[in-house]
Design goal:
With 178 residues, the protein is mainly α. It has two domains: 10-49, no CATH class; 51-177, AhpD-like (Up-down Bundle), CATH 1.20.1290.10. The chain contains nine helices and no strands. It has helices at residues 14-27, 33-38, 42-48, 51-62, 64-77, 81-93, 105-119, 126-135, 138-161. The longest helix has 24 residues, at 138-161. The two termini are 15 Å apart.
Length: 178
């Protein structure tokens, strides 16, 4: 059970309703339990929703599949049930089994990088950083690191709050969590 309940639609101030509308129309996204919990602070909501801009940016140079797999790997590395389930949904909806994903060499490097960032609190070994830097431009590396940081911030928020998993994600929970 969540430590902070999501803000109910009836308790949502007009200014936040406008921010919700802008968010849902700009990103074709829903207001989830996490977002409604962030709604207790419009500033927090708006800051966390910048995640979408970074996600769009990394999708441009990684492609959709690698972008969502990178986010999934960071979420798994951060041990965030909500975000892991959200990305499991995307993986499954794109026809893959999250437990049987096959990576090519470049994807594996990217997943190793995301996992290291999450699991080692950003302390990435020099050799891994050099390999990533050989594949991606400086701007792309900066955006990958920033996105991983934003993803980790989202993971931390959900883990601290113990945000309830949204009903639309229930069918995507690992069998051990259903």
């Amino acid at each position: 059970m969540a430590r902070i309940n999501p803000l109910s639609p009836q308790a949502t101030p007009v200014s936040l309703q406008s921010a919700y509308t802008l968010h849902t129309t700009t990103w074709n996204a829903r207001i989830t339990n996490m977002k409604a919990t962030l709604g207790h602070s419009q500033t927090a909501f708006e800051v966390y929703m910048e995640w979408y801009r970074l996600y769009d940016s990394i999708k441009r140079f990684l492609g959709l599949r690698s972008a969502y797999l990178f986010a999934y790997t960071v979420s798994v590395g951060s041990n965030c049930p909500l975000c892991t389930t959200f990305f499991r949904k995307i993986i499954i909806d794109n026809g893959e089994d999250p437990a049987a994903i096959v990576f090519d060499e470049q994807e594996q490097l990217l997943m190793d990088f995301g996992s290291a960032i999450a699991q080692q609190q950003g302390r990435v070994e020099d050799a891994l950083f050099a390999r990533i830097s050989a594949v991606y431009t400086t701007q792309e590396v900066v955006e990958l690191i920033a996105f991983a940081g934003q993803m980790i911030a989202t993971n931390i928020f959900n883990n601290v709050v113990e945000t309830d998993i949204d009903e639309y994600l229930y069918n995507y929970l690992p069998l051990t969590q259903k």
